[in-house]
Amino acid sequence: MPSFSHFFQILNETKGVFLKAMLLTLELTVVSIILGIVIGLVFALLKISKIKILELISDIYVYLVRGTPLIVQIFILYFGISGIFLLPDFWAASIALALHNGAYISEILRGAIQSVDKGQFEAGRSLGMTKTLTLRRIILPQAFRRALPPLGNQFIISLKDSSLAAFISMNELFNVATTLGSNNFDEMTYLLIVAVYYLLLVALMTLIVNRVELRLAVSDR
Amino acid sequence: MAMKEMIKINQLNKSFGDLHVLKNIDMTVFESDVVCLIGSSGSGKSTLLRCLNFLEKKDNGDIIIEGNTVNPRTDDLNKIREKVGMVFQNFNLFPHKTVLENIIEAPIRVKGVDKEEAITKAKQLLSKVTLEDKADVYPSKLSGGQKQRVAIARALAMEPDIMLFDEPTSALDPELVGEVLTTMKTLADEGMTMVVVTHEMGFAKEVADWIVYMHDGKIIERGTPDQFFNHPKEERTREFLNSTMLK
Fold this sequence. Notes:
The complex is a heterodimer of chains A (221) and B (247).
Chain A: H1 4-13, H2 15-47, H3 52-67, H4 70-82, H5 89-115, H6 118-126, H7 131-161, H8 173-183, H9 187-216
Helix pairs in contact in A: 1-9, 2-3, 2-5, 2-8, 3-5, 4-5, 5-7, 6-7, 7-9, 8-9
Chain B: E1 5-16, E2 19-30, E3 34-38, H1 45-52, E4 60-65, E5 68-69, H2 77-83, E6 84-87, H3 99-109, H4 115-128, H5 144-156, E7 162-166, H6 174-189, E8 193-197, H7 201-207, E9 210-215, E10 218-223, H8 225-230, H9 235-245
Parallel strand pairs in B: 3-8, 3-9, 6-7, 7-8
Antiparallel strand pairs in B: 1-2, 1-4, 4-5, 9-10
Helix pairs in contact in B: 3-4, 3-5, 4-5, 5-6
């Protein structure tokens, strides 16, 4: 095990390169979460559409994504698609992560939407609101609030999953740590350092999710 | 008699799977009538009420709202629902919106009413149900009776011609029933056309113009409160009245 002073010395010396890598990790994560929410919402709505073919499409998507490892999905997008047209590394990784997240998010949102009392929908309809309007103004805001805790969980998972982008040579946190570690014959120090950066990011993310949860909980007080 | 027919139902039938819940229902509701639908649970009265604003789809028969035979496949049901307000047993207030936001939501989003105007109207309605001080409160802070009065104000904000009430006091603590019934009585006195599914016999006796008694998916008897409570014609009605009056 490296000594404390050694650890902090390296931590200090490498902070420039790690901060840059952290920024990339953050970009990958944020882009994949935002795209993932959009994809997840679309497939959640397909799933509850009560139109058989759309439900089936949603089922197949969720099955394919949940049924294969993320690293396989990243490689398929990176190597498979780049044979057809050139997909920049960043977008190959982001899209793979987004498609992956989307499947899990769609299940989270579907559950949350279905947990909203049917009476809410009927109340909206009874006031002359269309299905779409009722969904947008009445159901989704309530569903989103209920979905926040599991969504926060999913966001943390996708942050950590972004480390798999290292395997298509993206210089995000994990790649930088392993590269520097092996170059300096000091893997453990760099792994511990990268763990600290991940913990910092997760702390930040938890803080944000908690803030949003608190803000949305205003109607309970 | 030049009274306007607000609701007319001809030979309405409705089944849930094998369960035939509404059997050849005929009914007419005139303008400013208060009709109380009574009967034991499972008699089909709530289903009948829900058919009137098309939350349930009829199997066959005609539903004629203000002279127009409604075809749920081709007609814009949202337009019809604007004219037919509904109050639910479980209130169904929007928990993520304040009382005021609950009331102004549909007028603004559906009717395109100007926000300031909607707020002014909402405040008038809140004072009508004596809850003017609760405008900025969330529903979770209200008692059941207050929730139901907000729900009534919310339905009234769409300026409906007809109000449907689906057991509006059944989910309330006994001491809160009175305030809701008083609000409904005020509405009735103002000439609102109302169809009320209720177990409150006192309210039915006092406020209803017509009582419709349902059993097993059929209308067994209808009449004025005096005819119905004091001179029931059907044996089935007498049994029902005996069982409810004895408590």
